[in-house]
Amino acid sequence: MSSLRMPVWVLFTLATLLFGCSENSATTPIKTGAEQTQVYLPLLRGKAVGLVVNQTSMVGEQHLVDLLMGNQINVQRIFAPEHGFRGDHDAGAKVDSGRDRKTGIELYSIYGKTRKPAAEAIADLDVIVFDIQDVGVRFYTYISSMHYMMEAAAEADIPFVVLDRPNPNGDYTDGPVLDPQFQSFVGMHPIPLVHGMTVGELAQMIKAEGWLETERTLDLTVVPVAGYHHDLRYELPVKPSPNLPNFSAIRHYPSLAFFEPTVVSIGRGTDFPFQVIGHDSVYLTEGEAFRYTPRSIPGASTHPKFENTEIKGMDLRDKTAQGLNLEYLLAWHQAFVRQQQPFFTSESFFDKLAGTDKLRKAMAEGKTQAQIRASWQADLEAFIKAREPYLLYP
Length: 394
Description:
Elements (H helix, E strand, L loop, with lengths): L7 H12 L17 H8 L3 E6 L4 E2 L2 E2 H7 L3 E7 L17 E2 L6 E4 L9 H4 L4 E5 L10 H15 L3 E4 L10 E4 L14 E3 L4 H10 L11 E4 L23 H10 L19 E4 L10 E3 L18 E5 L11 H12 L8 H8 L3 H7 L4 H18 L8
Parallel strand pairs: 1-4, 1-7, 4-6, 7-8, 8-11
Antiparallel strand pairs: 2-3, 5-6, 9-10, 12-14, 13-14
């Protein structure tokens, strides 16, 4: 295979010179990696290209697949992650291989039975490109799919290109760092729950820290976002998955996803998932006024908790999410404890989401948010220091 190696600092410098870098996004619009065609198209011409993309892989009003085909790039295969290439699959729903109905390009599922492509699935490729919008939370599985694709690319000596995108939760780093004994597809790396990195930065860390389970060295190129900084408010132009429809849901997601392996609803089966909290019989206060009725929404939540049952609870749609908030989880857990009702539907899955069993045990002991935060602070500070060499943005 011919090498596509180009140092990241060269790409970053080139992007900055072309588009500038400003603290004020209103005067200097950001340019995602995918929008910087003059940087990466030369790396793809005359190559058989594999793409790891989904519905978020947009370049303005055009999908990256269409842009590449319009530029006579040979898109050989599309690798489809959780929610599918078109983003129309429920969370956890199997994604099937086949053909894309619009372009006829072969689709290869990397969510379901196969998460790392077989050697023969990439043997005919010259380069693999990853361009998916992430939300900066460890248990959001796109970064796990990126890991497996990086590993497969390294083993096959195929260059791997990441077209970077902003992190809508990139302004802070918080939560427990993953304990390796709780490693799973919803937590593969020893990073905090909210890691504060873009996929491009994280890809560099995954490679350099030796987290890929291969002795081969990955030929990695990152095309950074021009004009971006981590404190920049970034509202996604396309929802990254069916149940994260807007900025509010994405910002509440790190806090509310803890309720997934519990009996409590966080709005799946409504038009406002990850923006409400409710139950049919347990409430924080008897005067809880907000009511909603989950329903079946194919492609988003086929059979949600409390389907066709009115429940009541908290409406967070107008509440600005400022970082990771454990108070919701602790308050609702205590409400169930007081009424002597079970709270968890799967303690083991909760521990996988948390990346540790210490959070669940601390809740059982009645510890406060401040006490819980103090327990992970040393690991968090160590990670923040360890990630410094891989950051591309201020």
